[in-house]
Amino acid sequence: MVRKLMDNPVWPRPVIVPIPERDSEVSTPYISLNGKWKLVENPSGEYWSNTVDVSQWDEVTVPAELFALGYDVRRNKEFVYKKCIKIPEEMKGRKIILKIGMAYEYSKVWVNGNFIRDHGGAFTPFDCDITDYVTPGEDAWITVMCMHRTDALCDWVGTEDSPGYAGLIDNIGILSVPKNHIYSFHYATDLDENYDDAILKVTVCAELNSTDYANVHFSLFDKNGEPVTIQPSKVLLSKENTKIEVDIPVKSPLKWDAEHPNLYRLEASFEVDGKVLQTFSKRVGFRKIERKGNNLYVNGKLTKLRGAARYSQEPILGKTFSDEQLELEVKMTKYANMNYIRSASYPEREKLYEYCDIYGVYVEVCAPVNFQRGAWDSQKDQVKRQSSDIPHYKAEYMNQFAEMIEAYKSHPSIIIWEYANESDWGVNFQTQLDYLEYEDPYRLTAGTWDNTKTSLASWHYPEYNEVFSNAAIYDEFVHLAAHALNTMTRDPAIRNAWGLSLHKGWEVLCPADGFVGSAIFALGDYTIMRPDGDVFARSFGQWGLLDCWYRERPELWLAKKAYSPVRIKDKRVDNPGEGNPLNIPMKNWYNNTNLSQLTFHWRVGAEEGTLTGPDIEPWNSGELVIPARKWVDGEVLELTVKDKEGMLVDKYELTIGDSRNTRSFPEVMGPAPDLLQDDSEIKVSGKDYHVIFSKETGLITKGHYNGSDIIKSGPYLNLYGMYYKPSDFSKDRQGEFGLKFSGWKKSSIHAEIQGNEVVIYISGTYPGDSKKDVWGFEFSYDEIKVDFEVRIDGAGLLTTKYTIQNPPVHYLTEVGVAYVLSDEIDRLTWEREALYSWYPENHIGRPRGTAYRYRGYGKDTYRVKPEWDWAFDEADFVYYGGSDKGGHGTNDFRSSRENIWFASAVMANSENRVRAEADGKSVTARAGVAKDEDPDLPEGIKFNMNNLIYYDLGNGSNPNKTGDGYLGNYTYPEIHLKPGYTNCVRMRFTDSDE
User: N or C: which end of the chain has fewer CB within 10 A?
Assistant: First the structure.
């Protein structure tokens, strides 16, 4: 069926001329203008004219954000680009269009001094017809002014001269088309009630300037490039009917979904007077998106979305990303068992959607409208900013919204349009939805705050396991722990702790009726490394599953595990008995994949095999059967799951039987060590070791073992905390405190022999502290009184008991004991109880391993992409600034290991070590450079053994929620100590972990 394409009655449909695949009149219809442009800030005079002298202007790279390039971007400040290009001779007699991908945020365009148009909106493409202002074969000057307005819809409200962004941040180029040409070419798909046969709905719009008629020929090719017979395959355009819509039936096409991204190719050839002038093509995915009841269905199949929100910046160029970066990002999304990306707060470059089409990722695209709220600031003062409900702003909203739909609506990956991010409802949003109802009824809708107007109910930061059942999509969910800055700086393991939120939450949410899906915040980092060493968003922007260089962070694997569609109870399986097969129960949480499409490789010792997955349909349960063998308690079954493309889906190390991962270390052993003391020191000596305490300070001055001086100082009370939970991202550090460890003052010290141990009793104090918060309220704690009891046996076991007489009343984050060890410590070894049984080799959460203090190669360099894994960074230019010299120890080395059986700090070129010993549940060990935690400590490694740890996985306090509820994460038990709190830790001199 062919019919006239009617105009949208709500708002004019914009013209964004597509770039053809082939053009018979010219060799190169599109010429990129990316590269070097001249730039001036705060221009004067008629800067748009061709006579202006640009010799003293800066030269900058396009595309790139000017703020990222080091410019001081302020609201309403003009930045002007100029470039002289030669218009090719072959464009003579053709229409010439300047195509601008994204210009942040308001722009004006001149060509050869002639004003062409202005444009509002940072993230949607627009065209400029420059035909009448250029001459093919001659030079042309292009001038583009960009500024960030105070009332930009894409960002927070600004004031005159407040910081902002500006610049050409996407591709720019010129396109020439014949006088008769296609200016719009799109498609949509629909499926019959059985989801078998399809209708391909194609729209074509053309300009016919020198002819009365034109033909458009359609061809459809399957994923193997074979032609598919279609009718009609040709339509006639006339001057009376230049805009048509045609329904093309397609019999039983392969369907597109995220697990089976089957793509066809639709080709359209534009013919005038028997000559094909232009040829266009689009990837076609046949799929149907529906809400049924309170659930999402794709092609009639119940579908759950598991993904992340994309709100990123490139560290050098800002909001500008290369094709290669976007493709890698989509591949990593698939690797992490995610099938969904929310393009958060604004549309992305079209290349992102192309890669999502190809690899199979569902996309929610948000209109570039952000934080348009009626009342907002941190003190809840009224700020009137309801532009969404002011009719005067209608054009601002609708021009960019219509451009977004026109530019991106032919992508099967896009299944949800979002009208705005975190904004109050208003008449302009209703106009957007009205436009969409006519323009694209084949997708669902969402928008933050008001869930009564859209297909899906959008929720930001519900509790990690809180179930809403009103077609709920949690499109910002379990925010990564990017805001606890002091903790992040000293202890990267807070990133590993975050995994509990998704692990606990997804198990509850995914099966829940009416829950559609979740988007972790966020997929990538938001930081910019400016040339002067200043890092933008350093207070919160390291929130990515991928870091700014697209390297895996620990959270990516944790997301992969939590989102895994193959659900197996981890860690242990029952022993079926000798000669019997092993049945492993499992659930299938895929949307469209039977587990028989997967392979399961098993290995026990030297025995191994590969099995086709069991016949389990989505949302059903069954068993994987491992062949019969002689099963022995304590053996480990390694199980590796891969999909049909060979990508790792999941991996396990399952212990057979009731064997537990326990370690048994000797208790107190005799004979008692020797005790010698004089007026200045106490010396305790045993086999292969001696420990010397200063009577003046009450601290160890030397701990010698087997030829190595391994302990330099201690014991110290290791105590960190928070006066309050900050609610202002940029002020997060102000809410946190740590003891001045070097401020220790001894009150008394005494030593005696008790049985097989020497016992040293030490009492003293640490100084108090006070601080004012961002509103001027003062918080403080008094001088802290502590008693230590250090017991040393004859075999080198040091048991340190501590009693805090008057602990701070505030939230505490670390409570334990620390010793400063030799600066020759170069590695940490451990075994612990981990969340999962298997981790990648360098993951900081792995249950056992060795973490090296030094990487051993390469140099950490500001603004240069590292050639090693994130775990091996020794500098942090975000937390410490662009001038950071490194030397902090690798991220792997500095990360806490919770729930240890043991953790050993080992001397370089030696096996000598001090080993913390525990029961697999009560001690967390952490190593770090002592002077990073207190510059007045001795040079060396601070070895922390914490009995209590609290990771602040949220940020700020929400009066309606408890604990870390502000960002919806799992809440560690809060630590509030009573006076007289006491506990102990154990460590041992040894040369082995056996």
Answer: C
